[in-house]
Design brief:
This protein is 6% helix and 33% strand. The chain is mainly beta and 451 residues long.
Length: 451
């Protein structure tokens, strides 16, 4: 474990400097190459706008391996936030806390993924200190996505997405432990490679969405054509659907709530690791980890509304009609048919989860914006990510800009103490953030600092 001597004092000093910087940065939007900085450029209030035309040319020779060492969390460390915001720790030393979802009664359901558990934290009113905590379910297989059904104030089921299935548990408001055995709703989900399976229900409760990431970086072992030929395949499958070992992957799927009537909603999403429904529009959104091996700034990660029937490029194209050089000339029939994502983010930031803000605690200009947890880079020479960012929306539509909101998890060029993984809006309007390096859960509020 890597220690950072004096880091707590440095963090405290930098936090004081952040307030003045953030007020200036709020007026400035970094664009083009200026938006491609590293962790030392990250501060609350720094805003970026990355456009498709900013995409550099791919360079297979410039692929970097730069995994972060895990640093011990410095004593007294707190994430850096914009002026007026504060963070309290709910829990620490949890093994791999990932997605977090809020039950209608306010309980926090946390996917303790590598431990195979779902944990519950019931907070004391207005505080981060748990009044009660419990292990809701065990013996799961890399659980990740969590959803309550039917949507609304009186759900009867808790759905959990394992890496290879979707199961559900009978639920009554306030349950701290599962009252029955899991019922398998969907099975035979491909389980190798990217394992984070997220789920969400449509607002009317009629559709269950499931994200299934790819099994590889860029379908390296898939044959050039499917059995029966490319023309026959293209005519019989959704636009952009892939075959072989990746068949059924890099997709968002839809089912009835009972797991029947499987269909493909969208294809070419390499790893949609986080999904949510936008409250203002009812649209499904996801955040996507794009491919590696094309250089420090290629291709951009993204957040996007998931459009029915859309193809987002993987593995043949990225960010529109940019052809992956490793698959050059293989799918000319798909040129011009790739849907452009809505919000582009810095390459290799690794977005894991997204939540729209509809609470009442934050200032009014946060209403309708979205928060995204960036887990952090490994395939980049200069470390980036390791923060929570705010996606800006206007009248229900994204502006394309995103802003650093919660930073300060990186200790040095070589080590980090925190890797944001999950975001959710609590019943009282606080923002809940999980990170799986130190295994902490945070409650972020605006206004008077907690005592």
């Amino acid at each position: 474990m890597i220690r950072s001597s004096g880091f707590a004092a440095i963090a405290a000093a930098s936090f004081l400097a952040t307030a003045a910087f953030a007020q200036q940065a709020d007026q400035q939007v970094l664009t083009g190459e200026a938006a491609f900085g590293g962790w030392k450029d990250d501060r609350p209030g720094v805003r970026r706008l990355i456009r498709p035309q900013d995409l550099p040319a791919p360079d297979l020779s410039q692929s970097a391996r730069n995994s972060a060492g895990r640093a011990e969390m410095p004593e007294g460390a707190r994430p850096q936030l914009p002026p007026g915001f504060s963070a309290e720790m709910i829990a620490s030393s949890i093994y791999n806390p990932r997605a977090v979802r809020v039950a209608p009664n306010g309980d926090l359901f946390v996917a303790n993924s590598k431990a195979g558990q779902i944990r519950i934290f019931r907070l004391a009113e207005g505080r981060a200190k748990p009044a009660e905590k419990s292990t809701y379910a065990t013996r799961l297989t890399r659980p990740y996505g969590i959803a309550f059904y039917p949507p609304g104030n009186k759900p009867q089921w808790v759905y959990v997405a394992n890496r290879d299935s979707i199961v559900r548990f009978p639920y009554q408001d306030g349950d701290l432990k599962a009252s029955g055995e899991p019922e398998t709703i969907v099975d035979n989900i491909p389980s190798s490679g990217h394992w984070t399976r997220d789920i969400a229900f449509s607002p009317d409760g009629k559709t269950l969405y499931l994200s299934v990431g790819s099994g590889s970086n860029v379908a390296e072992d898939v044959e050039a054509e499917p059995d029966g030929g490319l023309d026959a395949w293209a005519k019989s499958t959704p636009l952009g659907a892939i075959w072989g070992s990746e068949e059924g992957r890099a997709n968002v799927l839809a089912f009835d709530p009972d797991g029947k009537n499987r269909r493909i909603v969208a294809t070419g999403l390499r790893n949609c690791s986080g999904m949510t429904v936008q409250p203002a529009t009812g649209s499904l959104w996801c955040v996507v980890n794009e491919r590696d091996g094309l250089g420090d700034n290629v291709p951009f990660e993204f957040a996007t509304e998931v459009k029915d029937g859309a193809f987002y490029g993987w593995p043949w194209y990225y960010i529109g009609d940019n052809e992956d050089p490793r698959h050059r000339g293989k799918r000319p029939d798909l040129a011009g048919k790739v849907t452009m994502p809505d919000v582009l983010m810095q390459a290799h930031s690794a977005p894991l989860n997204i939540a729209f803000y509809d609470g009442k605690n934050f200032p009014s200009d946060y209403q309708g914006d979205a928060f995204v947890a960036l887990h952090g880079s490994w395939n980049r020479g200069i470390r980036t990510g390791y923060k929570v960012v705010r996606l800006k929306f206007r009248d229900g539509r994204p502006t394309g800009e995103y802003e650093d909101f919660m930073t300060g998890f990186v200790v040095s060029d070589d080590a980090v103490w925190g890797r944001p993984a999950g975001v959710a809006v609590a019943k009282d309007g606080a923002l809940i953030v999980t990170e799986d390096s130190s295994g902490t859960i945070w409650r972020v509020t605006y206004g008077k600092s907690p005592s």
